[in-house]
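Hi P.,

Sorry for the delay on this. The queue was packed all week, but I finally got your sequence through. Input first:
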Amino acid sequence: MITPVILSGGSGTRLWPLSRELQPKQLLALTGERTMLQETALRLEGFMQGQGTGPAIVVCNNEHRFMAAEQLRSVGIAAPRIILEPVGRNTAPALTLAALAASCVDGEDPILLVMPADHVVTDRDAFQSAVASGLPAATNGAIVTFGIVPARPETGYGYIRTGVRRDDGALKLVKFVEKPNLDRATEYVASGEYLWNSGLFMMRASVWLKALDTLDPSMSLACKEAFAAGKQDTDFLRVDPQSFEACPSDSIDYAVMEKLATHAGLGIDGVVIPMSAGWSDVGAWDALWDVMEKDENGNAAFGETIVEGCQGSLLYGGGRLVAGVGLKDVIVVETPDAVLVADKSRTQDVKKIVTRLKAEGRTLADSHRKIYRPWGWYDSIDFGDRFQVKRIVVEPGAKLSLQMHHHRAEHWIVVKGTAEVTNGEKVFLLSENESTYIPLGHVHRLANPGKVPLEIIEVQSGSYLGEDDIVRFEDTYGRAPN
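Then the structure:
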């Protein structure tokens, strides 16, 4: 039985302005209707006639928990176990938490298939075939990594050097190599001995825990303490923040994989399975262009776009029409609150823009205008001195926290559905085209008792309109008072 482990970290810097810190690329639909997280969770669908996989384990940032849970629910992922990281500590601690969780189920020792949530795989059949090829080695105690058969010399990826083929069909893992320059990358590809490092792994839970115990005991101890002191919170497992913050930060490669070849006494082999499955880590806008469908002039487009006399460019429309004329090797990305125009060869430098925005204290690095919440979402459609206008959508059966504000009053106008309103001591219903006024300091709540989404327009007015001016008295989703 394979347990999918989905590592859903990410800070949202390299695909800005579409990706933001509170909504990184794995939570976005970049190449189709489904988000990258959803595509990853469905990647083993039908594997071994549906009998070869168990419920997924997802490790994600605390701030992304409700979006991740809702995205998985909406594509029918059954009973995922979602582990929340209070802080980011890279992939090795994240995998360790997942291995500990997997080992808690009736004393099982499942095979873990470790998949980053922010990668693209265009050929699912080839992906599943590679996983099946690695099963014998993983079943017998090896740690399997999947190497991508290189399509070209690439300086943006790390490489894996492979050795002889074993009896189980896997290749011996010789060593990991950092991102090379172009000459070295050309040599690697020509030799036939090197594959791109995909960040995909497979092993038994007990094998990973044993390897980490020996190769990084401080990380192992910190993760075990954080997991043991963790608490179940509705649909999520929250590990102990203090213990996890003390955990060393390191990748799976550095913490374990690179050390396997020099620790023969450990008794754990590192092996490689070659994979050709249309893989990309979508590390920058040029990488997304690379995996998208293109017209006869090499242009890729998403959303409402028009191109005239363009070559090798990417136009990404987030809502408005994006028109390009005479562009060559240019990236244009439009969102409601920011537009990026970049030379396709310089897309790695987009993260420098994010760094500058953070240094200036601008929220454009952190969040979109449209913000998702466990009850639905809101869009800040206008603002000015002492006022802000929001479009708020509440899903059927959902409700906001019982709350009050010290610095603002609110007007609510229902434009779709039926609202149940708590306003001070009164609880009443509002229908379409009806409104109410929430005075400053009044305890209030908005709920949707109906079967269709509730949509309202909220007009806030006051001396301070920040989201931290919320005093919560009661919350369905376990959010702490603030």
